[in-house]
């Protein structure tokens, strides 16, 4: 059966008439705006924010388009990637009927969003080497499976998922395959964005929170076919990205050289950190990383975590997560932060 987007959509979304805002109805510049019931006098702060922002964030999408090589019509911007994830559930999954597949250990918001939307999750754990179990994924798919979530590089395991395996799923699954590339800037693998014309059932998630250093602005990106992006725009709130975030994102997107320099330094520090940690007696194994963090299997994850907390150093204890037993997830910090971490771990070991 060939992929058909219309077959995936919920009936209420097919017939949805989106809210039409004042800024949807008028585009362009004018000297007098009396259409949106804004405060015409301004804002009680230095920068005026009394006008509603562009509901489709065209200036930001245009700049992202230049950087990513994707037309603006194939880009959705959300309040973090979490908004895009939630919209996928609301647009394509019928509560209490449909299901999605996740491949744990993976990013926790897929499950949270499924639970909020009353959509069943079929969990197909990764293999011991943190790669996809293709046979079990194929066995889990039924007529009500709408989405498959694949995080690559994966959180919390840090590795990239085998590209051929992902392409096998894209080619054989009639639902949407969502590839979460939050950490792609740190990876040796190329993005799946370049495959959008090849696979009409592909949705790629990225973010400005990691390599771009804008976690506080909450701007996530989804890249997909024009038809899928149109559905995102139909379902989203009218002004989901505020004006301040749009302005600051545009400013950041013009500083690509700084971001690239930070990426290189982060990768250098990551390899240095891996090398140093490997010599510690409390470290059992360090898993391969294509991200800005590493997963470290230790002799005493909880003890080390608490010891670090007492010294003002916070890492993530992932020891209760399936296939991550005894492991800590450690973000690559600045050289100074990494040195403090190493010294603390050495004193724990001593």
From TrEMBL:
Keywords: Amino-acid biosynthesis, Aminotransferase, Histidine biosynthesis, Pyridoxal phosphate, Transferase. Belongs to the class-II pyridoxal-phosphate-dependent aminotransferase family. Histidinol-phosphate aminotransferase subfamily. Its cofactor is pyridoxal 5'-phosphate. Pathway: Amino-acid biosynthesis; L-histidine biosynthesis; L-histidine from 5-phospho-alpha-D-ribose 1-diphosphate: step 7/9; Lipid metabolism. InterPro entries: Aminotrans_II_pyridoxalP_BS, Aminotransferase_I/II_large, HisP_aminotrans, PyrdxlP-dep_Trfase, PyrdxlP-dep_Trfase_major, PyrdxlP-dep_Trfase_small. It comes from Paradesertivirga mongoliensis. This is Histidinol-phosphate aminotransferase. NCBIfam families: hisC.
């Amino acid at each position: 059966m060939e992929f058909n987007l219309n077959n995936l959509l919920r009936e209420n979304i097919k017939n949805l008439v989106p809210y039409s805002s004042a800024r949807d109805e008028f585009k362009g510049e004018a000297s007098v705006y009396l259409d949106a019931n804004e405060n015409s006098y301004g804002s009680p702060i230095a920068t005026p924010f009394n006008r509603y922002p562009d509901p489709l964030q065209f200036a930001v999408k245009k700049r992202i388009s230049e950087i990513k090589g994707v037309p603006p019509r194939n880009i959705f911007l959300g309040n973090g990637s979490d908004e895009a994830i939630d919209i996928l559930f609301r647009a394509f999954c019928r509560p209490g009927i449909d299901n999605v597949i996740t491949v744990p250990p993976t990013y926790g918001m897929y499950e949270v969003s499924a639970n909020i939307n009353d959509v069943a999750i079929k969990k197909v754990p990764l293999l011991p080497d943190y790669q996809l179990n293709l046979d079990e994924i194929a066995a889990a798919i039924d007529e009500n499976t709408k989405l498959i979530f694949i995080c690559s590089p994966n959180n919390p395991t840090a590795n990239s998922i085998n590209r051929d395996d992902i392409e096998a799923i894209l080619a054989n699954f009639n639902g949407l395959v969502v590839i979460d590339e939050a950490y792609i800037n740190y990876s040796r693998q190329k993005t799946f964005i370049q495959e959008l014309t090849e696979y009409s059932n592909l949705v790629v998630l990225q973010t400005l929170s990691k390599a771009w250093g804008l976690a506080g602005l909450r701007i996530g990106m989804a890249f997909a076919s024009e038809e899928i992006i149109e559905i995102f725009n139909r379902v989203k709130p009218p002004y989901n990205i505020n004006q301040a975030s749009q302005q600051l994102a545009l400013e950041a997107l013009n500083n690509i050289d700084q971001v690239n320099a930070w990426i290189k330094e982060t990768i250098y520090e990551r390899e240095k950190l891996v090398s140093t940690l490997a010599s510690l007696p409390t470290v059992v194994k360090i898993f391969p990383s294509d991200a800005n963090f590493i997963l470290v299997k230790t002799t005493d994850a909880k003890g080390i975590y608490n010891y670090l907390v007492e010294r003002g150093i916070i890492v993530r204890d992932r020891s209760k997560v399936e296939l991550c037993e005894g492991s800590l997830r450690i973000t690559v910090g600045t050289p100074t932060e990494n040195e403090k971490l190493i010294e603390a771990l050495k004193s724990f070991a001593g």
